[in-house]
Amino acid sequence: MATAELRAEALLTVREERYLQIVWRRFRRHRVALAGAAVLLFFIFIAIAAPWIAPYDPYVQNLERKNAAPSPAHWLGTDELGRDVLSRLMHAARISLTVAFVVVLISQTAGALIGAISGYFGGWVDNLIQRVVDFMLTLPLLPLLLTISALLSDVTIPGLSREWSSVVLIIFVLSAFGWMGTARLVRGVVLSLREQAFTEAARALGMSDLQIVVRHMIPNAMAPIIVSATLALGTVIILEAALSFLGFGVQPPVPTWGNMLNNAQADMWTQPFKAIVPGFCIFLTSLSFNFVGDGLRDALDPRLKR
Amino acid sequence: MVNYLIRRLFQMMLVILLSSMAIYAIMNLAPGGPLSGINLGADRKSRLSVEEIRRIEEFLGLHRPLHWRYIVWLLGEDWLDKVGLEHLQRTSCQRIPEECARGVIRFDFGDSWRLAAGQKVIDLIWFRLPNTLLLMTSATLLSLVVAIPIGIYSAVRQYSMLDYAATAFAFFGTAMPVFWFGLMTIFLVSGPRSPWHQVLGLPYLPTGNTFSLRPPPPGSLLYVLGATPGSALDRAVHLILPTLVLSLLYMAGWSRYTRSSMLEVLRQDYVRTARAKGLVERLVIMKHALRNALIPIVTILTLEIPGIFSGAVITETVFNYKGMGRLYYDALQADDWPVVMALLFITALLVVFANLLADILYTIVDPRIRLE
């Protein structure tokens, strides 16, 4: 008995590896996606290693050498408070990417669950959820995000300073308005899964509705969820940067690419690189997430190909 | 159809009422009221006493309970004394009758608190509206003129070089942060210090605003064209960069929509029939396929209408373009709630009407669809 189980498990892992291998082989063919993945790995490495590889402390001011031009000591110069721009850029990658990943984790999980519930149960539950999704999707996103961030700007979370509270709040706000697309996507997948034989088998075996949703519906919808999550990362990076740029997102001195860009626009013509570099980081990250998402779409499920 | 419209109108009124409640509640229940920062920067001498703050609150009507404030915001307060609720009226309102007869129902959103203290919010909006309409019309037209042909071509010649180029362009458009793109265009071609002027020696564009305040300096495009401040030409030149930046966003999306919609239609039987009966390819595409492919585009365009009001917040802010988007940003910055609430309410109104319009247009462009 034990050996039989073991053998079955071994078989399963072999098949799983083969699936991942197929995905990887297909993904590798997509040159642009591969380049995007390389760029993202680079940024993620910088983000993780920032405290060790950044040449200076991003918060330490030195008013004697403010607004310095690039030099061997400060590769990208210093900002209006004499802080090293390169170090701030590296720590900004940390904040911006963390915000993006946490927001996407929360909003995609919520979206998947809500969508699966909506599709699986149908009836008035489905109707209610879909009307809410419809309504939220028609609202103009940016003004709404701006308003709520502005209203919450005075809120501080106990135990956190004002600027770190702003990081948590921006995660909250972006998550609250990021789940609708995934919910609709997963609902569509679940609607077709629900009618298939294995669902009936699971029910016949005595699985509860919750178990079926979590164990069968969501895993089967994983491919489109992963694709939409990757694309969502690109969107969230831009939205967070936009809010921080307009002054309603992450508050200085905590650096993000968005608020660094805001600081840099004052002396754009004398020191253009300070406006060029953070913006280019935002653009490149978002573009890479889009490319990787596109590559994953082709690799994970060829049927999804447009 | 008539029955449908009547039912829809009732639903819409309900939605508008609910969203007005939501807007009012969110703006007024949020921490930090309009008077919260009033003593913040003041020294001991100019600091207001509790008594004085209470008087200001009474003047603004903030002493009333929240639901009454909402009702007055919506309906005005001239009717309160007729139903025996004169204690809820402000004293200023009892003295001056015009102060009483206000409320959203009369399209009066109260007075601005900070941005233009004492001015009517609706006047601020009327003042800004033409600028935004101008920007939105030019951006929409430009994007349509570029995006639809690109979309058609990409679909007809799928996987051609131009299709790949259009795909790449769409990727760049969706990944591009508008604020950065705007800043970069300003950096490159605006102002006397831009590389455009310094390196290439070409006449530079204005860095922002909707019109010039003083005669243009030599070297600027406005000077070369001989535009006088405030003239139509002056406004047109100020419109160039915001229009370009805004339409890039739309182009990326709309060319994709057109492409996928067109691909869908080209696969259908009736297109094959049209070809089989020997119709010229140009007619098959422009007359048979395009007409049906544009149906979803009509809906998308209609649903963009609410964005006219608030969609260009970033672009208008970056270019300091005095439109509704910039007004919204300024109002949020200054905690000018009456302005914020007015803009949100009008946006909600437009969302609801655009949805209805989209549904009605759908039945017109596609007779197969019937509303019931």
Instruction: Indicate the mean pLDDT of chain A.
Output: 87
- Global outline of chain A: globular
Structural class of chain B: mainly alpha
Total strand count of chain A, please? 0
CA(first)-CA(last) distance of chain A: 47 Å
Strand content of chain A: under 5%
Secondary-structure element string of chain B: HHHHHHHHHHHHHHHHH
Distance between the termini of chain B: 6 Å
Query: Uncertain segments of chain A of ≥5 residues (pLDDT<50)?
Result: none
Count of helices of chain B?
A: 17
Provide a brief overview of the structure.
The complex is a heterodimer of chains A (306) and B (372). Chain A is 74% helix and 0% strand. Chain A has 306 residues and is an all-alpha fold.
Features:
heterodimer, A: 306 residues, mainly alpha, 12 helices, 74% helix, globular, B: 372 residues, 17 helices
Could you characterize what this model shows?
The complex is a heterodimer of chains A (306) and B (372). Chain A is mainly α and 306 residues long. In chain A, 74% of the residues lie in helices and 0% in strands. Chain A contains twelve helices and no strands. Chain A has helices spanning 2-29, 31-53, 85-121, 123-138, 141-152, 162-176, 180-194, 197-204, 209-220, 222-246, 257-264, 273-300. Chain A is globular and about 75 Å long. Chain A starts with a helix and ends in a 6-residue tail after the last helix. Chain B is an all-alpha fold. Helices cover 66% and strands 0% of the residues of chain B. In chain B, helix 6 runs antiparallel to helix 7 (161-175), helix 12 runs antiparallel to helix 13 (281-303) and helix 16 packs antiparallel against helix 17 (337-365). Chain B is flat, with a radius of gyration of 26 Å. The mean pLDDT of chain B is 85.
Sequence-ordered SSE layout with sheet pairings:
The complex is a heterodimer of chains A (306) and B (372).
Chain A: H1 2-29, H2 31-53, H3 85-121, H4 123-138, H5 141-152, H6 162-176, H7 180-194, H8 197-204, H9 209-220, H10 222-246, H11 257-264, H12 273-300
Helix pairs in contact in A: 1-12, 2-3, 2-12, 3-4, 3-6, 3-7, 3-9, 3-10, 4-7, 5-6, 7-10, 10-11, 10-12, 11-12
Chain B: H1 2-29, H2 50-60, H3 66-75, H4 91-95, H5 97-100, H6 121-156, H7 161-175, H8 178-189, H9 195-198, H10 221-225, H11 232-266, H12 269-276, H13 281-303, H14 305-310, H15 313-318, H16 324-333, H17 337-365
Helix pairs in contact in B: 1-17, 6-7, 6-11, 7-11, 8-11, 11-13, 12-13, 13-17, 16-17
